[in-house]
Design brief:
By secondary structure, the protein is mainly beta. The protein has one helix and 16 strands.
């Protein structure tokens, strides 16, 4: 066991190092996003535009897991729980479209048929509210809610890379680390 790491009964077990003091903030997570339980170690993004500016949500980034060679209005993604109806998203560099349906069980989302488009495997799907930039990492699990609720995030300190629970490609995790550079340090093992 690394020096300074404690495996006591704790909500942040295997998420953060207790050797380096960390800074946590309780922020408001918007309702209607996240899995049934948003796990400790989930990377969150901060919303920078719209009526929810200043609130957070699980990182507003996922990727296509089934290519669509012909224009489609329903897409399969790695994690649809980061989306909610009404979100403005882009697939790669396409035009911004509005999400009309989300199926968290089957990891799909839909847009209006007039917004149909093609998609390649691993194309990035990014939210257009600013939450696609990493802001912090949750230190305890959170039950899903349709209403806004507080979520404690570590915004400065040390985080175990293997504790990150978001479904991200290696390149996306590298971008997360870059977003958090000089605030959170990622170490590779427990």
């Amino acid at each position: 066991m690394p020096v300074g790491v404690s495996y006591q009964d704790s909500n942040f077990k295997k998420v953060i190092s207790l050797e380096h003091p960390d800074i946590r903030r309780s922020l408001i997570m918007i309702g209607g996003v996240g899995k049934s339980t948003t796990e400790a170690g989930t990377v969150f993004g901060k919303i920078t535009s719209g009526e929810d500016a200043g609130k957070v949500r699980p990182l507003g980034l996922t990727y296509i897991t089934q290519a669509e060679a012909e224009a489609a209005s329903t897409f399969k993604v790695a994690d649809a729980s980061v989306l909610k109806v009404g979100d403005s998203i882009k697939i790669v560099d396409g035009s911004a479209v509005t999400v009309t349906a989300v199926d968290k069980v089957n990891n799909t989302f839909s847009v209006d048929t007039e917004d149909a488009q093609t998609a390649d495997l691993n194309d990035a799907v990014t939210l257009q509210d600013g939450s696609d930039t990493a802001f912090g990492v949750s230190v305890e699990p959170l039950e899903a809610s349709d209403t806004d609720q507080p979520v404690p995030l570590i915004i400065h300190g040390v985080v175990y890379e293997k504790a990150i629970t978001n479904a991200l490609l290696a390149t996306q995790l590298a971008a997360v680390k870059e977003d958090l550079f000089n605030r959170l340090w990622f170490i590779e093992s427990y």
